Amino acid sequence: MSLRDLNLRTRRRLRRHAWLLTAWCVCVGFATSWVLLHGFGMRFAAARYGIAAIVMYALGLVVGARIWLVHFSQSVRHEASALGTAAPGDAAAFDDEKLAHKRRAGHSFDWADLFGGIADLVSFDEAAALLIIPAVIFAIVGVVLLAGAVPALLMDGVAGLLAEVAVQFVFGALIARRVMRPKAHDAAFMTIVEKTWLAGLALFVLSTGAGWLLSRLNPGGATIADVFR
Asked: Residue 66 belongs to what domain range?
């Protein structure tokens, strides 16, 4: 169950929502780090980044996706004729879109494929590739943004997670000729955690490692900017 299982209009909306949810996650992470540094005087970067990663995952992603589910369900009720699962033509259009993207990429280096391959290697789901990125941002934000990794991963990372949540808890699905009815929203929290906990752990480890590396590069420094002063 992924973006392929939804029609074109729904896919576009989920991708837009994925941008917003990701922006929320990143803002939560940086705001947490800022409050810990300036409000509580926590200068040890490894601990501060680790705590920020935990809050970023729990409040940013898990709680954010759960709140999104409530509002998206309401949107579907008001736009039942427009939002829904994919017809055969929609699935074919999705495949053509993916093929066209690969052709445009040509032989150029694809950051999305790189992080997606890492995620597959350790059995992460679709959201994992994206969740690796914020930890890297703490250490090499400029390089990552210039390389275009964040925009590429947004399309298939958080959007893929939202698509799976939408299929399971809003639309339902037809699997092997059996109808899977939408699940009760009460189970959404556990489903989101089940799909993303390993990625959340990687986010914590990488963020903590980035903080430790920062401390090694600039003993006494509290932020990345201190390295360049």
From this structure: 3-82+111-227
Phi and psi dihedrals of 219, rounded to 5? Answer: -55, 130
Q: Which two tokens stand for residue 53?
A: 């990663």
| Segment 62-102, tens digit of pLDDT | 999 999 999 988 888 888 777 877 777 776 777 777 777 66
CB 94 within 8 A of CB 86: yes
- What is the per-residue pLDDT across 22-56, written as a single tens digit (0 to 9) for each? 889 889 999 999 999 999 999 898 999 999 999 99
Residue whose tokens read 């040890």: 44
Residue 85 in contact with residue 167, Cβ under 8 Å? yes
77 within domain boundaries: yes
In 60-216, DSSP assigns E strands to 173-175, 178-180
Number of structural domains (the chain) is 1
Q: Residue with structure tokens 């909306």?
A: 13
| 98 is a domain residue | no
